[in-house]
Each structure stands twice: as C-alpha cells, then as structure tokens.
Specification:
Distance between the termini: 40 Å
Number of domains: 1
Number of helices: 4
Radius of gyration: 16 Å
Strand order of the largest sheet: 4-2-1-5-6
Shape: globular
Number of strands: 7
Structural class: alpha+beta
Largest sheet: 5 strands, antiparallel
Length: about 150
C-alpha cells in the first residue's frame, strides 16, 4: 500500500521527463513490503494506473529483465499493478493492520541500507500527500451554505 508522488530527484541531479514528457513518480510506502526500486517512469506509472496524490493498494511482482535492461545494468525488474486505487482513510487503516508496517526490501545490487534517509524523504512526501488528500476530503465534505 503506497501513496504516489512526483519524483523530483536530488538537487544536484533533478529528474527529467521520459520520452513521452511524463515525470517519474515515487511510491511512498504506507504499509507492507516494497522493493527499494520504487521510482517508476512516468509513462509506466500512468499505464499502470498510478495517480499522483492518491493512495493505492499495489501488487508487486518480479519479472525477468530484458537483454537491453541487463546490458544497461538495470538489475532486477518489477511490475507494479494497482489492485485498488484512491483508498479512503478507513481502508488505509485496515491495510496497515493487515499488511503491517511499511518496509523497504533491498533488491538493488551493491546498495547500502538507506532506510533512515529514505524514511526522512518518505515522511516529507507523505506529509505533502496527506495535506493534499485532506484538502481534497475537506472540499468533498464541506457544507454548502446558500
């Protein structure tokens, strides 16, 4: 279970749009397990149904890399499938109970454990996504006064 946010990259290496003009996204884990390769090309994310600012129940499956991916050194590859989109607050709480705390699984070869740094980045992105979701919810539930 994860929220979806635009991935801007570090200051010294900002992200760029893919060849279709779509910016990459990052999955900010809310509950369950996710590989540490959680930055997804914008076009791939769009085709998978990932929507920035929403929380999704996501199924992650490993797939064999193509010859080009191996040659380019991309390592292990994963497919991200949206099982349920735009989860509500009660669904998120239920998911946290069922899937347990958010945990990244290190799958990148030679990667060091950056969970503390990731947690800070994720917390910042989650705070931003939560604020946006709260505004959206406030708009939906606001009383209309005539």
């Amino acid at each position: 279970m994860a929220t979806v946010a635009l991935f801007e990259g570090p200051i010294d290496m900002p992200s760029e749009p893919d060849k279709h003009g779509k910016m990459p996204v990052i999955l900010n884990l809310v509950a369950g397990l996710c590989p540490d390769k959680r930055v997804i090309a914008g076009t791939v994310a769009e085709r998978a149904g990932l929507i920035v600012g929403q929380c999704h129940l996501i199924q992650v499956t490993e797939r064999p890399p193509t010859d080009d991916e191996i040659a380019d050194g991309y390592g292990r590859q994963f497919n991200f499938t949206v099982v349920k989109a735009d989860l509500g607050f009660s669904e998120i709480l239920q998911g946290q109970k069922e899937f347990g705390p958010a945990r990244l699984v290190v799958v990148t070869e030679g990667a060091e454990d950056t969970s503390e740094e990731d947690a800070k980045v994720q917390a910042k992105a989650d705070k931003k996504a939560a604020k946006k979701a709260a505004k959206k919810l406030a708009k939906k539930t606001a009383l209309k006064v005539k």
